[in-house]
Amino acid sequence: MIPDLLLVLKGSIACLVMAIGLGSEPGDLLYLFRRPLLLARSLLAMYVLVPMAAVVVVLVLPVPPPIRAALLVLAVSAGAPLLPKKLKAIGDAQYVFSLLVLSSLLAIVLVPVWLALLGQWFGGDAGVGPLIAAMAIGKAFLLPLAVGLALRRAITAKADWLSQRLLAIAGVTLLCAALMLLATGWRVFTQMGWQGLSGLAVFLMVALAIGHLLGGPRVEDRTVLAIACATRHIGIAVLVATHFPGTRTVVLVAGYVVTAAIVSMTYLHLRRNDVT
C-alpha cells in the first residue's frame, strides 16, 4: 500500500507544479536575479542556515536514529513552497515562481553535496547522486512545469482559472496521501517518543523563523521565504527518503508534510492579519 501512496504523493506534487506553471509567466523566473540581495538572503536561508539548524537540533536534542534520517532528508530538501494559492493574498507570486524554479535547479547539485557532507553523521548514506537527482527533478518538476507553461500559452484566457482549480485538487490529494501514509505507519510515531517528535517540531519552527528573519523589510518577501524554509521541497524529500532502508523515513516525512501545512496556514493567517 505504501508504494501506491508514494505514487499518489508524487503525482499530486507534479500536478501542483504544473498548476504553478499554468499561473505564471516565463518572465517571472528573472524576478530574483533582478533583486540580488533578496536572492542572496534566500539562498543563505534555504541552503545554509536551515541545514545547519538540523545539525544543531541533532546535537542539542536526544533524537533517535530514524529522526536523524528524517532530519537529514528535510535539511537537504530545500525548495520553494507549494502553497502559492494561499500566498497570493499576502505574498508575491513572482517571487514564489522564481524561487521554486531556482531552488529546484540548484537541488540537482546541492542535494548530493549536502548528503555527502551530512549523510554519515545523520545515520546513513542515501546514495542520491547528481544524475539521480537531475532525472528525478526533471520528471517530477521540470517536465510538469514546462507542460503548465505551454498550456498557459495555448489557453491564456482560462489559464489562471484552471491553475487555481488544479492547485486546489492536487493540494487536497497531497494532504490525503500524506495522512494515509501516517495512518499506515502510525506505530512509527509511537516508537519515536516525545524526544523524536519534538526534534521534528523544533526544526520546523526554527526553519520558519530563519525564513521570516532573512526575508528582508517587505512583509510579502518575509512570508514567502518563511514558508519556503518551513515546507521544504516535498518532491525532493520523498526522493531522498525512498533511498533509505525501510519505510520509517518516508512516514516521518509525511508527518512533517501534514505538520508543516498546519503550521504554515496558521502563520499565513497571522501574517494576513498583520497586513490588514
User: Which regions are unreliable across 5 or more consecutive residues at pLDDT < 50?
Assistant: none
Q: Overall mean pLDDT score?
A: 76
**Radius of gyration (Å):** 17 Å
CATH-assigned fold name: Na+/H+ antiporter like fold
Secondary structure tally: strands: 0
Overall, the morphology is globular
Number of DSSP helices?
Answer: 11
CATH class: Mainly Alpha
- Secondary-structure element pattern, one letter each: HHHHHHHHHHH
CATH architecture: Up-down Bundle
* Sheet of most strands: none
Q: Secondary-structure map with pairings?
A:
Blueprint: H1 2-22, H2 36-60, H3 65-76, H4 84-87, H5 93-122, H6 130-154, H7 156-184, H8 186-214, H9 219-231, H10 234-241, H11 248-275
Helix pairs in contact: 1-6, 1-7, 2-3, 2-5, 2-8, 2-9, 3-5, 3-8, 3-10, 3-11, 5-6, 6-7, 7-11, 8-9, 8-11, 9-11, 10-11
Walk me through this protein's architecture.
With 276 residues, the protein is mainly alpha-helical. It has a single domain (2-275), classed as Up-down Bundle (Na+/H+ antiporter like fold). It has eleven helices and no strands. The chain is globular and about 55 Å long. The protein starts with a helix and ends with a helix. The mean pLDDT is 76.
